[in-house]
Amino acid sequence: MAILVERDHIGIFGKMNSGKSSIMNLLTQHNTSIVDATPGTTADTKISLLEIHGIGPVKLFDTAGADESSVLGEKKKSKVFSNLKVCDLVILVIDPSNNDFHTDLEIINKTRELDKQLVVIYNIFKTEDIDKISQIENENSILQFYKKLQLSANDINYRQSLIEFVIDNLDSKNCQVPLLPFLEENEYYILIIPMDVETPSGRYLRPQAMVEEYITRHWAYPVSFRLDLGKARSADTLENEKEKKRFLSLLNNFKKKPKAIITDSQAMDIMNKWCPNDISLTTFSITMINYMSRGKINSFINGVKIIDSLKTGDRVLIAEACNHSRIGEDIGTVQIPNYLNKLIPGIQIDHCFGREFQENRTLQSYKLIIHCGACMITPQTLVARLRDLENIDVPYTNYGFVLSYIQGLTALQKVIEPWIT
User: Does 32 share its domain with 99?
Assistant: First the structure.
């Protein structure tokens, strides 16, 4: 079956006479756009189709300057930001000889608002302008979140480095990962679903529903088990054993052993002990974060190991993608903070919810970011967040990994194993 490959949209943005059209021509190796010193030469967006080896088919947008002050200039600006909405990668071209970066910052802020990928190109017209770049970045701290390249757009010798820069910094929308890459047809998969006070009535949570649908669609068999966490954790041995017996009875009813157990992360303390060694185990949160991040699971694994090096006074940010009502033993606001405070007295724990992450300009002050499963945001939004953290070298991990790590390295290794091929 033929797979439709969509064109990634790459837009070139900036002020008038910053060298946007020259960047376009450098990419296409043609005089695709008119280049002239006259301000406002690009009157409307110029579009070109291109095949970039290492990416595939792309559509390039050479936009008008976003700083033209006239009635026509306002119309051009409106078109520029309309183009920005449909672009997968925004290339912001900056002439470091300028003194006013209001327009550049406006483009950056709009890009952040839309969770777009952005890179910065400093187009050097005069060699002495290179020395101004460090001052520009000191005065505009938001630039820390973006990869940069210096070049002279009129010099064909910079084309290869430009192409490599684009390839290295574009997360293609054609890059898809399966929800459960370890799934096998005609096998059983048990879903451990505690229903506590936060569980909405009449439906599964989105990760649970997605996993069940995915297993069914791919010709395997999902089996749901409602775990009573209260009884499973009870100090009353009779209650505890009764719940464990109910779970083991389920396993024993299978003529064919289940291939894996996928559990709610908060039940890892129970499943780590009850799951047989010959059945794979992982969590819904780990499943979602791998899927939503487009396969960055190794980064989350590396991030959880940072917990070993945390010390008194360090700052940790717990990031929740949605703004649901929090009651009971909430994972992000109660369970994980309680564990960290007990492990490292004096650690500072902050929280952010929803869009607060994009507005946080102090991310570099954290030693670790712990993110939820991201089931209520888009992959584009999550990847934008991770890109910010990677560009400032701040490690990150996920609820599922932390709650597994709490149970010890053996438990952590067990939930990782299904994902390592």
Answer: yes
| The pLDDT of residue 2 | 44
Q: What are residue 140's DSSP bridge partners? A: none
Domain boundary among 287, 310, 333: 287
- Could you tell me the residue range of the domain that residue 356 belongs to? 298-405
Helix/strand/coil for 87: coil
Average pLDDT over residues 30-34: 65
| Residue range 186-195: mean pLDDT, rounded | 96
pTM score of the predicted model? 0.85
Q: Say if residues 180 and 284 touch (Cβ distance below 8 Å).
A: no
CATH of the domain at 132: 3.40.50.300
CATH code, domain with 281: 3.40.50.11420
Residue 338 lies in a domain: yes
pLDDT over threshold 70, residue 60: yes
> Rounded to an integer, what distance in angstroms lies between the CA atom of residue 122 and that of residue 126?
11
pLDDT tens-digit readout, 213-242: 999 999 999 999 999 999 999 999 999 999
Instruction: Tell me: do 310 and 281 sit in the same domain.
Output: no
Q: Is the pLDDT of residue 41 over 60?
A: no
Q: Per the structure, how many domains does the chain have? A: 3
Shared domain check, 282 and 304:
no
